[in-house]
């Protein structure tokens, strides 16, 4: 350990040492849970890069999802005013108490990120923000977590997350291109996304079966298209992609319970007759959701 690290509280860089990590986890009788997506980072260069890239300095603080043993949390605590880390697995709490001992700007919150009242958390912990999110996401809830963060009106500046490599490509794919899905629509509506860097599967303990990538979403101040009702727009986007192999008309009609001829007419009016969802641009999806809103309001 360098002299500089020696002066800092908590475990810091030592958490990237597989031997030290195994010793720590063994001492706490901890076993990895596959169902909670527990693959802990052991590549020493990844967390400093994420902490550096997430924009912590420009925010009231950082929200982390799933601190695990605190390897990223610790790096974030070095650059952020405050870090709140939400962890579901209570077995990790005594471990975090040890690894983050003395990191006074870190608060670990027990809970499920899908159930917590995030607006309240931002208000209570960060004085209303703005905040940024930085996390190595549990992969089984990548899309639901991102959708929550993007669809709720939270004071977010940026979201920097590690996701599966394929998910990174999908999330950053522009609407109207083959790889895009309902989450990419929300991503592009709310933010400007980019892939920052790849991360190999060997960077984790235990190693997952797939490679990963870190992406950053910079939240927009204004959406790029005009939408009459955002909640409805997101429903339309989800409905259009609900059955990817079908046409958008079929998928939307069954997802939203609107008669197919009405959906077909709305699609034709936005220049997308007979199209599948992945062919619809953001502008077309916005216009379509506005037309369908009129259709349901005056059937
Ligand atoms: N940040 C650590 C790292 O990079 O090594 C751990 C990342 S690990 C991929 C995901 C973490 O999310 C685990 O600690 C897991 O227990 C936690 N987790 C899983 N589901 C969660 C949920 N619904 N809410 C909050 N945390 C969750």
Automatic annotation (TrEMBL):
SMART domains (alphabetical): rADc
InterPro entries: KsgA/Erm, rRNA_Ade_diMease-like_C, rRNA_Ade_Mease_Trfase_CS, rRNA_Ade_methylase_Trfase_N, rRNA_adenine_dimethylase, SAM-dependent_MTases_sf
UniProt domain Ribosomal RNA adenine methylase transferase N-terminal: residue ranges: 46-221
Catalytic EC class: transferase
Reactions it catalyzes: adenosine(1518)/adenosine(1519) in 16S rRNA + 4 S-adenosyl-L-methionine = N(6)-dimethyladenosine(1518)/N(6)-dimethyladenosine(1519) in 16S rRNA + 4 S-adenosyl-L-homocysteine + 4 H(+)
Gene Ontology, cellular component aspect: cytosol
Main location: cytoplasm
Keywords for this protein: Cytoplasm, Methyltransferase, RNA-binding, rRNA processing, S-adenosyl-L-methionine, Transferase
Transmembrane segments: none
Annotated compartments: Cytoplasm
Family: Belongs to the class I-like SAM-binding methyltransferase superfamily. rRNA adenine N(6)-methyltransferase family. RsmA subfamily.
Role this protein plays: Specifically dimethylates two adjacent adenosines (A1518 and A1519) in the loop of a conserved hairpin near the 3'-end of 16S rRNA in the 30S particle. May play a critical role in biogenesis of 30S subunits.
PANTHER family in UniProt: DIMETHYLADENOSINE TRANSFERASE, DIMETHYLADENOSINE TRANSFERASE-RELATED
This protein's name: Ribosomal RNA small subunit methyltransferase A
Gene from which the chain derives: rsmA
